[in-house]
Amino acid sequence: MSYHTATELAQIGNHKDKQTGAVSTPIHLSTTFAHPGLGKSTGYDYTRTKNPTREILEEALAKLEEGSQAIVTSSGMSAIQLVFQLFPAKSEFLVSRDLYGGSYRYFDELARQNGSVFHYFDDYESLAAQLTDQITAIFLETPTNPLMQEVSIADTAKLARRYQACLIVDNTFSTPLRQQPLKEGADIVLHSGTKFLSGHNDLLAGVVVAKTPEIGERLAWLSNTTGPTLSSFDSWLFIRSLKTLKIRFEAQERNAQKIAKVLTTFPQVEKVLYPGIGGMISFYLQDTKQIPAFLSKLRLITFAESLGGVETLITYPTTQTHADIPTELRESYGLTANLLRLSVGIEDPQDLLADLEQALQWQE
């Protein structure tokens, strides 16, 4: 039977333990499992390959993204690395120009290590202009991190099919609650599970979901072979967190919509970047020199890396998340030194706005 998303999330793991009837999924810490006899298996042999707790999590994530198979990994970057193991050396890729700095750092290393070539696009038009039969895969962030640029997944998927290119979408910012890339034609969707999906700033995880069984089986084989395994305890934490995803994300989104609107009225703010959905806002200050003072004056909002948690965080991409992108390059596409990124939490929005307002007061 099919239920609404909130119900599916709240019920993850319930009715799974037939022996005890445990409502909260048990944590199976064992690394190895006994065989009933020679050539026989309970379905579990070694926890890197398959674990009962992790299996419940992966089934829930596959259902959430409407994919055939999900694989959870030890971090968002290990999820990206797992996906790129699908492709041979010297492959060519089309990648969003504005993207997470860690992804750029990894792609730059792949180019040095095995001769892979990465072409970058700023929008759908520049993507279409560069797409040829030589492109193995397209890696799309939408909205992008941190400039919130959007590219149509469905339109990109049509182009990708025409050139037989694999379409990979990083869905970390929007989550499956706001977009489901596999339904729009993507082949693979991935997340930093550390962010909105787990949402409590206490868990490091990655998620890969495949559209087809063939891709899913290959990714599972690669995961078993290379071992970017998420532990059973962290899998349990992830399950616990997913149960409240819809409630958390909707609260974060409501707060972000209010804050983005008010931020545009502050004279110290040059421009606000907000796609209208989700809990992420970026904004430019009029005076770059005031950023240290602004950050030091915040009392409620925490100056820290990461995003998607219930606590509101503010990040300075220039020295934190995107520091590995060369200055001239990042400034060429708008990631300048006066940009700040706000991950909105579930606090009362009036308290968050009051904190921002007091921190934005300075002598001109």
UniProtKB/TrEMBL annotation:
The keyword Nucleus does not apply. Signal peptide: none annotated. The modification N6-(pyridoxal phosphate)lysine is found at residue 195. The keyword Transferase applies. Its cofactor is pyridoxal 5'-phosphate. It is an enzyme of class 4 (lyase). This is homocysteine desulfhydrase.
